[in-house]
Structures are given as C-alpha cells and as structure tokens.
Amino acid sequence: MEGGEGEEKKQQLVEGEKGEEEERPSRLQPPALGTNPWLVYSHGKRYRNQSFYDVSGGSCHLKSIPEMRNKLIWNYSYGWLILSHASKDGTTLPKKDRDCSLLNLISMQNIKLPRMTNFATSYVLLSRPPNDPNCYVMCFPLEKQCVIFCKVGDVEWIEKELQDLGLRPDEEDYLGCVSTYDGQIHMLRSNKLFLVEIEDYHVTCTDLQIERSRRPQLSPRVQHLQSMVESSGELFLIYIFDFGRYFNHFEIMKLDSENKKWVSVQNLKDRAIFINLHGGPIASISTKEFSGLKENTIYFTLPEDRFLYHYNLEERRVAICMPCPNVTQNWHQPMWFFP
C-alpha cells in the first residue's frame, strides 16, 4: 500500500484515542511513573504479569495490565511501547504474522498496527510521536537489506530494498544499529552513518560522509555489538564487547560533526546510559536529576537472565543486582521505559 487505502480502513486500525474511562483497580494499571527510568519485565503464564522496577528509587511493582498481556515488548520510542503478540507457547520468535500495537503507559492509548513477522530480528522505532501526522513506524531487519514501514492506521507494511533507496551494499554489508538523533533517524551500516528520512511514504538514505568508525583493538574473536544514543545534543556510538557471562567491556565514541569523524570518549561525567544488549531501546539521562543513579555508568541487561548490570567507566568493572525477585518463570527480556 502506498498510503491510499482511505480513512475508513485507517480508522478500523485505531483501537482507542483514549484509555478506558472507568477507574481501574491499581493492579491493572501502571505504577505512578513520574519521570524516573523504569525497567519493565513481562512474565508468567502467557506473559500475564508485568513487573516495573524503578531504577532510581529501587522499588518493584507487580502489575497485570490487560493491554500488555500475552504481548512481547520489542522497543520503546517517544514514550510508547511497541508490542507484538506472543505465540500460544510463549515463543519469543514468532514464525508467522503477529498482531502489533503501540501502547502509551501514561494515557493508556492503545493503537493497533498491521500484522508482521520481522519484529523479532529488527530495530523498530517511531520516526516521530504518533500524534504527529508525519509519524511512521520504522522497522530495520537485521537479516534483510531493506526498510519496512507504515503509518498509524495503515492496513499493511511497505518494504523498500536498500538498493531502491540508492544504497549499494558491499559484500560485508551489515546493520550495526539505528537511533534517533536531533529528531531524525540515523542508521549505522557497515560502520557508515546514514540519515534516514521519510515523507509521504518516500524514504531516502543519505550517506553523511563520516569517517568510518574504527572498532577498538581487542581480540578479534570477541563478539561485539554496536549501539547509538543521543546525549545532551550529541551522538554517541557504543561498542559492546561480550567476553561471556558477567563480563562485558564498553568503548564509547562521540560524533565530531565538524570534522566528520568519531572520537574516543573516556568519561560520561554526570550522565548515565541505559541499553539492552541484542536490541531494544537505548537512552541517556543526567544523574543530577535522580539521586539514586550512578554517574559515568552504563546500565544494561542481558537476554539470557533477569539481572541488572552497572558498568562504571572509570572503574572499568561491573556490579550486579536482582531488580525483581518475583520474576521467576517464563519471562521475556526486560525493556527500558522513560516517561
């Protein structure tokens, strides 16, 4: 579909402009979110329960929000959770089309999206907030050289091959990471930085001609991942080295736009960065606003366990805590949420 299905079909895909009018029991609604960063776990039979961990305050809240039951959280973007329906056996990698939706935990507005299969192995984010008429849901698959997108209310996704967008992937082409910076989507592909823009269902990818980032020199056998985050108006590139359980190493680069290159960063000062290894959202906030957070620290989770890890850049070591002891079975990788 190229945006011409009409308003009647579009309206069928919007489940609610507002949440439920009647007061809900407290267990069926999110905790008082405030402005603190939260870590959200989906767990229990058919992912019926959600545990919200206040990273700054240290408290855990057990909930069972109807809109999140039997749903997997694939990402968080502009204050909205991007959800995908879980399979009957709780599988986290759907093999066929699944229902997808957007959920705002403040207003409880729930917006239905077209069904798709690629969320499990993709970067998924919003180009703008959903109340913006130019908002698109953008999907960047890890295993395909394409961009998949739709507008709120569309009945199907549109897929564009990278070659159709003017990109010429080389033999070593791979998707490193995708992030929002200065209100626009940026994609790191084969260590080259691209600006991705979309308007009237037309996508363009512009090579920003930034000198390719050089991976820090560690053992070539060590697996590494990449993430990008905007912090205080600057774009940071994070290399994540996985040496095995409980031991990860991070190296940080910052974009020097004037000289079109990445430069090494040794200290985040009063900033804290929050990431999910192997996908998911990434954000940066000032620790001056939250007394319970540690400065110059990277907070992260791993897909294989329920722990929360803190990596201090100055000390170069990791601390571990168990945020929600009640999460004991059938849990999905937790996701960060920032009100």
Number of helices: 1
**Rounded Rg:** 20 Å
What's the helix-strand series? HEEEEEEEEEEEEEEEEEEEEEEEEE
Helix fraction, binned, reads under 10%
Distance between the termini: 33 Å
Q: What share of residues are in beta strands?
A: over 45%
Form type: globular
Number of strands: 25
Low-confidence stretches: 1-21
Query: The biggest beta sheet, please?
Result: 5 strands, mixed
Strand order of the largest sheet: 21-20-22-23-24
Secondary structure category: mainly beta
Chain-averaged pLDDT: 84
Summarize the structure.
The chain has 1 helix and 25 strands.
Write up this protein.
With 339 residues, this protein is mainly β. Helices cover 2% and strands 46% of the residues. The chain is built from 1 helix and 25 strands. It has one helix spanning 7-12; strands at 38-43, 49-54, 60-63, 71-77, 80-85, 98-104, 110-116, 122-126, 136-141, 146-151, 158-161, 175-181, 184-189, 192-199, 202-207, 223-231, 234-242, 248-256, 261-265, 271-276, 282-286, 297-301, 308-312, 317-321, 332-337. It has a 5-stranded mixed β-sheet with strand order 21-20-22-23-24, with no helix packed on it. A 4-stranded antiparallel β-sheet has the order 3-2-1-25, with no helix packed on it. A hairpin with a 2-residue loop joins strand 16 (223-231) and strand 17 (234-242). The chain is globular. Residues 1-21 have low confidence and may be disordered.
Characteristics of this structure?
single chain, 339 residues, mainly beta, 1 helix, 25 strands, 46% strand, disordered N terminus, KIB1-4_b-propeller, KIB1-4 beta-propeller domain-containing protein
